[in-house]
Amino acid sequence: MEWSNVFSTLAAPIDVVLDIGFGAGDALATLAALRPDEAIVGVDVHTPGVAHVLEAIDLNGWQHVRVMEGDVLALLPRLPLASLAGMRMFFPDPWPKTKQRHRRLARADVIAQLVASVRVGGTLHFATDIVDYAERIAQLCAEDARLRGGVVARPEWRPVTRFETRGLNEGRDSIDLIYERIS
To answer: pTM for this one?
Structure first.
């Protein structure tokens, strides 16, 4: 897969950001409107969210946004190495029960594939309101010598998601983690 083929209507070079698990699609649409020079590939299994983003693409005439309905785990092996400017994963499903935790995307194999897909100087941005999920992301990223970063103050530019609002209403604070690929 070549990004220049996926985004053939855009002038090269392009910065491609992978947006994993965009849910209802509001945050993806907000960032697409604010960042027209950033090519976005959104991946989610939530059909209504995919439809919402497709509607926004059509309504706004966006040429810089693509969506894939499906599991990101099927896409990761197909991503070109060191080709992404960044990756965003905002409020992934926390799978709170112990017997469900193997379904979380914060796994060593997934993080390794994400890091391999992001170019040197690119970023991986995670946001969650589940403390043990954030701790697991931090642990896995700290173990990867190609990354530098950690917990940061919530960036002002990051849109508030529906899941974030729900967590805030339930008394949970958001945790943002940003890592830069350094090698």
So the answer is: 0.94
